[in-house]
Amino acid sequence: MPKESLxxxxxxxxxxxxxxxxxxxxxxxxxxxxDFVVMxxxxxxxxxxxxxxxxxxxxxxxxxxxxxxxxxxxxxxxVNKATTMAREEGFPxxxxxxxxx
Length: 101
Description:
Blueprint: E1 21-27, H1 34-43, H2 49-62, E2 64-71, H3 72-88, E3 94-99
Antiparallel strand pairs: 1-2, 1-3
Helix pairs in contact: 1-2
C-alpha cells in the first residue's frame, strides 16, 4: 500500500480584531422618576447604589450620561431591556447606543 503524503502549499492568515464596542447612553426627560432611573441602573446595568445615584444626577444635570460600554449584542440587549421595563411602568425613558470613539 503506497504512503500518502500531505503537502501544505500555503498558510491562510486570519486577522483577528476585538469587536467594536458601543456606549449605552441614558437621556434625561421630565417624566421618568429619579428612583426608577436608579432602579434601572442597578438591575440592568449592575451599578452599585452610590454609582447609580451619581449617574442619575449626572443625567439630570447634563441631559445624558454614558452608563456603560459593551459589545454590540450586549449593548442592544441592555437598551431593549431597560426600554421595555420603562414602557411597562409608563415612563418615556430613552436610551441609545453609539460606537465608542
